[in-house]
Structure formats: structure tokens, C-alpha cells
């Protein structure tokens, strides 16, 4: 493991983390740790680092800010908290969390089944919570300063509605570790669902701010509906729902453009029609952060996993031998909080 996050020997980290993560998950974590160190060093070496920190945090200890910048710019990270991997059930729906009381960043084990970029984002967000305790001791910057820190470090553009949501969000929660309830600031496991409509003149979105929907925004000038169905789900694993249609000649995807303002050009993801006789859904049933294609047929439920690189789906797999549809409706969503969509 990288010395960046683990000042103790690796053996100590394994002892404190009873989760037996797979080698592929360990590799994802190591890649993410290396990238986090690189991004932090680049950020703090920037001549505008202090200005950017002021945008994120309510800094009351200016000297602490100067020390943090000076040390981090040359790769000295002596204020980094411990890291612990825990089962999803302990995380209360969060992907990551930071506890000032234990000086520990907690990561859900399902997060490590996603790509290293997502792990990197969560680590940066939780480090933002840690840095807030150094720059604003005894206080807490309003909103989710961890998420804002992550966005600023990675250079993610933010719309005014997104910035307002972050600055007014309550990021406090609790996790349960070894039967002990611990107060934390967290990175949520899911983002807010927005209201989406497809009209004759294009696709419109009303963003959610957590308590209501904001004014209408036009995201496309063309109608985007499929002859077999239309869905919005994150098939690429970037945390933003993509537009998906199933037509007579296959499945097409328009990726969310990454800035929260529209969709990218059409991409063909399959050459076959993928619709079930009882229904078709797109939801993450495998827990890797990417929506899989699900169909219910007369002989059971089938799944085509997202292929992991955001370009298509893997071969068909039969998941049940029974038909699973309800007389009033059928859905796939994560109701248990383990990062995998359940059949409802």
C-alpha cells in the first residue's frame, strides 16, 4: 500500500480492516491513492492555491493554510488521516466518510468495485473534510466543503444550481464501526434524482436541490426516444445519468456531457435489440457503479453487464429461472444500501 495514506505498515492496515477485498479492488485503491497524491501536489503547487482554498473553506487559521500549502506542494502530507475499508451496511448509504473523532476516512467496500477515478473523487472529498478541521478548527464550513474541494482540485465546472446545492447541503451523518456509532461527514452513495421529460422539441431537465425541483432547462434540441423504450441511467460510471434508447437495430447511448448541461452525440452500444417480453430496465445490479441492462422474459430474468469501459454491454447472463414482474409494477433500485440494485 502507498505510504501516502498508510503511515503504518501494510500489516497494521489489514488487521484494522477485516474486509477481504479482492486483488482487483486493492489495485483500484492503489491507483486511486497515487492519483490523489499527484492531484493534491499539483493543486497546492499552484500560485492560486490559497485563493482556491478561500473559495472552499471558511479559513480561520491563515497560518495553517500556509503550512498546508507549503508542505503539500512538495509532497509532504503529514496531516493525512487513517484509511479503513468497511462493509456497505456500516456506511449508512455513503461511499466514503471522514470522522474527526477517529481521524479516519472510511470507504465502503462496494466503492472499490468501481473504477479508480470514482475512488479518487471520494478520497479527495473526504480529505476536504479533513482539511476543514485544520483550516477552521472548532467550526465547520457551511455546506459540503468536501465535495466542493474535490470539484475545485479536479477542475470540475459547476453550474450555479450545483454550487448552491453544495453550499447548502448537510453532509453530517453517522456510521457504525464495530458496534460503535461514529459521527462523520460523508460522500453520499447516490446523487439527487432530477426530473426529466422528452418532448416533441427536445429533452428538458428540472434539477433537484434536495427539497424541490428547480426551473426547467432545455438539454437537447432533438427528440430522443427509442422505438422500444427510453431510459436515463448511469451506464458509464461517472455519476451522471446518460440517455439510453432501444431501437429496432440496437441500443444507443448519449452520454451526459460531464458539465451537467446536456448530452454528447449518439453512440451505438449494441447491434441487437435488447428488450424483454415482461420489461426492460437499466440499473446497477452488479455494484460496479455502471447501470446494467436487465430484461424479464417468460423464462426468467437476464442481465447484460456494463462492460466496464463505458462502451457497451457484456454477453447475456440468466439470473433467475422464474418470471419476476409485479401486477402493479416492477423496478430495480438499491433499497438495501449495498450499492447493488434489488428487484422490487
UniProtKB/TrEMBL annotation:
Keywords: Signal. InterPro entries: FG-GAP, Integrin_alpha_N. The keyword Signal applies. SUPFAM superfamilies: Integrin alpha N-terminal domain. It holds the Pfam family FG-GAP_3. This is VCBS repeat-containing protein.
Amino acid at each position: 500500500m502507498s505510504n501516502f495514506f498508510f503511515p503504518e505498515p501494510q500489516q497494521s492496515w489489514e488487521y484494522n480492516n477485516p474486509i477481504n477485498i479482492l486483488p482487483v479492488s486493492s489495485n483500484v485503491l492503489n491507483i486511486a491513492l497515487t492519483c490523489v497524491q499527484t492531484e493534491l501536489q499539483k493543486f497546492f503547487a499552484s500560485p492560486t492555491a490559497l485563493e482556491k482554498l478561500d473559495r472552499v473553506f471558511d479559513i480561520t487559521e491563515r497560518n495553517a493554510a500556509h503550512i498546508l500549502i507549503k508542505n503539500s506542494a512538495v509532497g509532504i502530507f503529514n496531516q493525512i488521516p487513517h484509511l479503513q475499508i468497511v462493509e456497505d451496511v456500516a456506511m449508512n448509504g455513503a461511499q466514503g466518510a471522514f470522522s474527526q473523532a477517529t481521524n479516519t476516512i472510511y470507504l465502503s467496500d462496494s466503492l472499490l468495485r468501481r473504477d479508480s477515478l470514482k475512488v479518487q473523487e471520494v478520497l479527495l472529498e473526504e480529505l476536504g473534510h479533513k482539511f476543514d478541521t485544520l483550516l477552521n478548527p472548532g467550526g465547520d464550513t457551511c455546506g459540503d466543503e468536501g465535495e466542493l474541494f474535490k470539484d475545485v482540485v479536479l477542475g470540475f465546472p459547476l453550474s450555479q444550481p450545483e454550487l448552491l446545492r453544495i453550499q447548502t447541503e448537510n453532509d453530517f451523518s453517522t456510521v457504525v464501526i464495530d458496534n460503535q456509532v461514529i459521527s462523520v461527514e460523508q460522500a453520499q452513495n447516490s446523487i439527487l434524482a432530477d426530473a426529466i421529460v422528452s418532448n416533441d422539441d427536445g429533452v428538458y431537465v428540472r434539477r433537484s436541490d434536495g427539497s424541490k425541483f428547480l426551473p426547467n432547462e432545455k438539454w437537447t434540441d432533438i427528440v430522443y426516444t427509442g422505438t422500444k423504450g427510453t431510459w436515463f441511467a448511469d451506464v458509464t460510471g461517472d455519476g451522471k445519468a446518460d440517455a439510453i434508447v432501444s431501437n429496432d437495430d440496437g441500443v444507443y447511448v448519449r452520454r451526459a456531457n460531464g458539465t451537467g448541461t446536456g448530452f454528447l452525440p449518439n453512440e451505438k452500444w449494441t447491434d441487437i435489440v435488447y428488450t424483454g417480453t415482461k420489461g426492460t430496465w437499466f440499473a446497477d445490479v452488479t455494484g460496479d457503479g455502471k447501470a446494467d441492462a436487465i430484461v424479464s422474459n417468460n423464462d426468467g430474468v437476464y442481465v447484460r453487464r456494463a462492460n466496464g469501459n463505458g462502451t457497451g454491454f457484456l454477453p447475456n447472463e440468466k439470473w433467475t429461472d422464474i418470471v419476476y414482474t409485479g401486477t402493479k409494477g416492477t423496478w430495480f433500485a438499491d433499497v438495501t444500501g449495498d450499492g447493488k440494485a434489488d428487484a422490487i
